[in-house]
Amino acid sequence: MVVARSGGIARIVLDRPGKANALTAEMLAALRDAVLAAQDRVLVLTGAGTVFSAGADLEAARAGLATSPLWEEVSAAVAGFAGLSIAALNGSCAGGALGMVLACDLRVAVPEARMFYPVMRLGYLPQPSDPGRLRALVGPSRAKLLLMGGAKVGAAEALAMGLLDAVAEDVDAAAAALSADVLAAPDGHGPAIKRMI
Questions:
Q1: Whole-structure pTM over 0.90, yes or no?
Q2: What is the pLDDT of residue 102?
Q3: Fold of the CATH domain 2-196
Q4: FRET pair for 18, CA 20 to 30 Å: which of 36, 53, 57, 139?
Q5: How confident is the model over 153-180, as a mean pLDDT?
Q6: Helix H segments across the chain?
Q7: How many CB atoms lie within 10 A of CB 2?
């Protein structure tokens, strides 16, 4: 994982591209701690390479990571971030990694990104807060489509259903554009509006 801070933006990059940014317990704990430590106006979560994250590392999942409370802790940290949080999906997002994406305020993805959460097929329950956040974005039927029907949705479909807020070839530039007003506002203005929403 790489954390970079510049101009009011904390940018956290999942950096295991050779393994499709599959997450281990150590990565999840480091991600949680990095988000909790961020005091910036904007938080951007992205990945290295061409995949945002394949979810849990397979070996770690077999060893119990799939049901670890760390997933919920990461999502709670993201949801609790006072400023604007943006998931800049440089590629597909699967499984538990979708939880941190759902916890972000905004989601932007490259056109070729696909999103899926195969808990039904794998026999796991989703993390506790994920179904509620998913339902709030896409409605109950589409939440069931993703969680129970095993649907894999492309970026265009995800945008149409409300799972994404924008699709862009350059997600870093899109995240920067979405951050501009927050960065230009007086101190505390962004968090105040976020609390009102």
A1: yes
A2: 98
A3: 2-enoyl-CoA Hydratase; Chain A, domain 1 (3.90.226)
A4: 36
A5: 98
A6: 25-37, 58-62, 70-79, 97-103, 119-122, 130-138, 140-147, 155-161, 171-184, 189-196
A7: 11
